[in-house]
Design brief:
single chain; mainly alpha; two-stranded antiparallel ribbon; 2 helices; 2 strands
């Protein structure tokens, strides 16, 4: 935090050559605009990742049901899809 200095003159002007009294007071905190933008982006990414996880979990549940009712020759492809979805869900969950 930067400290700004305020000078009080007690109604006198500097032309009178009266010594000025310096007082240190905290006026404001300077916030980096890039930090604000990064925080917004993180919040947005977190919300999108959470929504994406919910959708992938729903898709995984439907895929498991479809696997159970699929003919034997389609089960291999459905099993690959299920494993990929599980891996993707794990990866996305680790990002949060």
């Amino acid at each position: 935090m930067r400290v700004l200095r305020a000078t009080f003159l007690d109604g006198q002007t500097c032309r009178d050559k009266i010594p000025c009294v310096s007082v240190v007071c905290r006026v404001a905190e300077i916030i980096d605009f890039q930090d604000v933008l990064r925080q917004r982006a993180r919040r947005r990414e977190h919300a999108l990742t959470t929504r994406c996880l919910a959708l992938m979990e729903e898709c995984l549940a439907v895929s498991r049901i479809a696997y159970a009712g699929a003919p034997f020759d389609e089960r291999g492809a459905r099993a690959v899809k299920i494993r990929q979805l599980e891996d993707l869900i794990t990866y996305a969950a680790n990002l949060l």
